[in-house]
Amino acid sequence: MNTIVKGDALMLFDANGESIALATSHTLSISGDVAQINCKDGGIWSGGSVNQLNWSIDTDNLYSTVEFDRLFEMMTARTPVDVYFGLKAQTGTGDVDTDGVAPTSGATQKVWTKGTGSYKGKAVISSLNVNAPSGDNATFTASFTGVGALAKETVTSEESHDTNL
């Protein structure tokens, strides 16, 4: 059965299951490098084959010094970090989805794994940008560039998934 998923349910998590706090949007991009296959006998249509795949995740967030500093430390360490992109925990009453209250900085969600999949991989933070408009909330964006494979992980356990990669 197909289930429609609201964007609020999909989140980016680190290896400890901590979400990128105060996120307003996440974008997972997967693409392939296409090698052109052309010859004089091929007519007017070109051909191609996918050689290598690559992936990235972009996140837009409300600015918090705690969260920005955490990502700044990860970026300046220049080492790949473990990331998950998947459904957050469904906790029922009182969670940040249902009570109308914004989470505090550093609020965490766990990946919800009951019968669903998430994507995991190692990535480096390739950009970190702050936007401070006059009279509006400050925001920041971060881009994670995949280092190696992005793998789909399917877990059928009803327990929260241990997010150690």
Task: Give the CATH level 1 class.
Answer: Mainly Beta
What would the average pLDDT be, to the nearest integer?
Answer: 80
Q: Largest sheet, if any? A: 7 strands, antiparallel
pLDDT < 50 stretches: 92-106, 157-165
CATH topology: Pnp Oxidase, Chain A
Instruction: State the assembly state of the protein chains.
Output: single chain
Order of helices and strands: EEEHEEEE
N→C terminal distance = 29 Å
Integer tally of domains: 1
Work out the number of β strands.
7
C-alpha geometry: globular
- Quickly count the helices: 1
Structural class: mainly beta
- Gyration radius (Cα, Å) is 19 Å
CATH architecture: Roll
Question: How much strand?
Answer: 35-45%
Task: Tell me the name of the CATH homologous superfamily.
Answer: Hcp1-like
Query: How much helix, percentage-wise, in residues?
Result: under 10%
Description:
There is one protein chain. With 165 residues, the chain is mostly beta strands. The chain has one domain (9-34, 50-155): Roll (Pnp Oxidase, Chain A), CATH 2.30.110.20. 7% of the residues lie in helices and 44% in strands. The protein is built from one helix and seven strands, in the order βββαββββ. The chain has one helix at residues 65-76; strands spanning 10-14, 23-37, 47-62, 81-87, 116-131, 139-146, 151-155. Strands 1, 2, 3, 4, 5, 6 and 7 form a seven-stranded antiparallel sheet that branches. The protein starts with 9 loop residues before the first strand and ends in a 10-residue tail after the last strand. The model is unreliable at 92-106 and 157-165 (pLDDT under 50).
